[in-house]
Amino acid sequence: MNETETVLALATRVAREAGDIQRRRYETELDVQTKSASIDLVTEVDKACEALIVGAIERERPGDAVLAEEGGGHDRADARWRWVVDPLDGTTNYAHGYPRFAVSIGVECEGVRQVGVVYDPLLDECFHATRGGGAFRNGHAIRVSDERDLGQALLATGFAYDVRRAMDDNVENFGRMIKAARAVRRDGSAALDLCYVAAGRFDGFWEFKLSPWDVAAGLLLVEEAGGRCSDAGGAPADPSGRQTVATNGWLHDAMLELIRPGG
Ligand code: IPD
Ligand code: CA
Ligand code: CA
Hints:
By secondary structure, this protein is α+β, with helices and mostly antiparallel strands. It has helices spanning 3-25, 44-60, 91-96, 171-180, 190-198, 212-224, 252-258, and strands at residues 32-34, 41-43, 65-68, 81-89, 102-109, 112-120, 125-130, 134-137, 140-141, 154-157, 183-185, 204-208, 228-230, 243-247. The strands form three sheets. Strands 3-4-5-6-7-8-9 form a seven-stranded mixed sheet, sandwiched between helices. The chain has a five-stranded mixed sheet with strand order 11-10-12-14-13, with helices on both faces.
C-alpha cells in the first residue's frame, strides 16, 4: 500500500464508524446546542463522531495535522498531511430526523487535495476519490452528467447560517436560478451535494460561505469525476469554501453568469 492508499483506508474506516454512530442515534432524543446563530446547531452526535475520527487519526498517524469543525483538531507545524473533517454534515437535517446527512473527510498532502471520503450512513453510500485515481461510489466509478442545457438541469444550493442578517444571502441567486434551471434543491448537506454532482445526480451546485470541512472531500470528488470547480469568478476552487461553484463542466459558464457573490 502506498501512503495515499493507507490514508484512504483509514479515512474510509473512520467515516464508516462515525456513520454507524449517526445511524444508531438517528431519531433518538439528542442534546442539541446552538453555535454562531440560533439556526446553527450542534448535537452530541457531531461531537461523538468528531472525537472518534480525530482519536483514530491521532493514534494511527500522530504526525498529521487535523482541522475539525467542532474544534477537536490539532495543528502540526511540520505535517505533510492534513485532515479536514466534518464529522456530521447536515446537522439541521439530523436534528429534525430528515434523512440526509453524511460524514465528510478530506485529506491534503502538502496543501494539495489528495483523498476525499463522504459516507451517507442511511443509504450506506460511500463516495471516495484520490487525486488522479478517479471518483467512486461504493467502489464503482462515477462521472459527472453530460447535461449541456441549463433549462434541463437539476441544481443544488444552500444558505449560510447568517442568512437572517446578511445582505449577501444568496436569495437572489436562488431566484434567478430557479427560473433558469429545471429545478433547484436545497437539501442541507453540502458534502453530499458535491458528491451528487460527481455522481451525475445533480448537474451543478453553488454555495457561499461554506467552510473548508464542507468542501474538502467533495471538491476532489467532483474534479476526479470529470467536473469543474471554481469560485464565483471562475478562478480555481477555493479550499476555504467561501465561494463554491461545482458543475459537470458543460454548465459552468452559464451558471457563473447568473451567480453573484453579493446575492
Ligand atoms: C452545513 C450544510 C449545509 C450548508 C451549510 C453548512 P453543517 O453544514 O453543509 O448544507 O448549507 O452552509 O454549514 O453545519 O450541517 O455541518
Ligand atoms: Ca458542514
Ligand atoms: Ca458539521
